[in-house]
Amino acid sequence: MCSLCGFPAAPGHWTEAGAATAHDRLRERFRRGAMLSNLLRPVGISVHDGGLVPGILVMGPGGASAIVPNLEVLWIEVDRILGRPFDPLET
Known about the structure:
It is a single chain. This protein is of the alpha+beta class. It has a domain at about 45-85. The chain is built from two helices and three strands; from the N terminus they run H-E-E-E-H. It has helices spanning about 20-40, 70-80, and strands spanning about 45-50, 55-60, 65-70. Strands 1-2-3 form a three-stranded antiparallel beta sheet. Strand 2 and strand 3 (about 65-70) form a beta hairpin. The longest helix is centred in the middle third of the chain and has 19 residues, at about 20-40.
């Protein structure tokens, strides 16, 4: 259980499957967060995964923000914040 937010600890993401240690899994979370942030920066959305709480913080222009549990929900939230579908291949 996360002492900050009260959510149960999130299971690892499938992209962390090759991580041998908790340190490796954390490093993969940070790497994934940086890649998402770089991908979404051109549309004004920032992404932060501090590794302390389960989930990914998504912040849009104008102060819209949400904590999402995984990548599937992240894309839904990005669409909601932008008010239109976002295609990551178009950036």
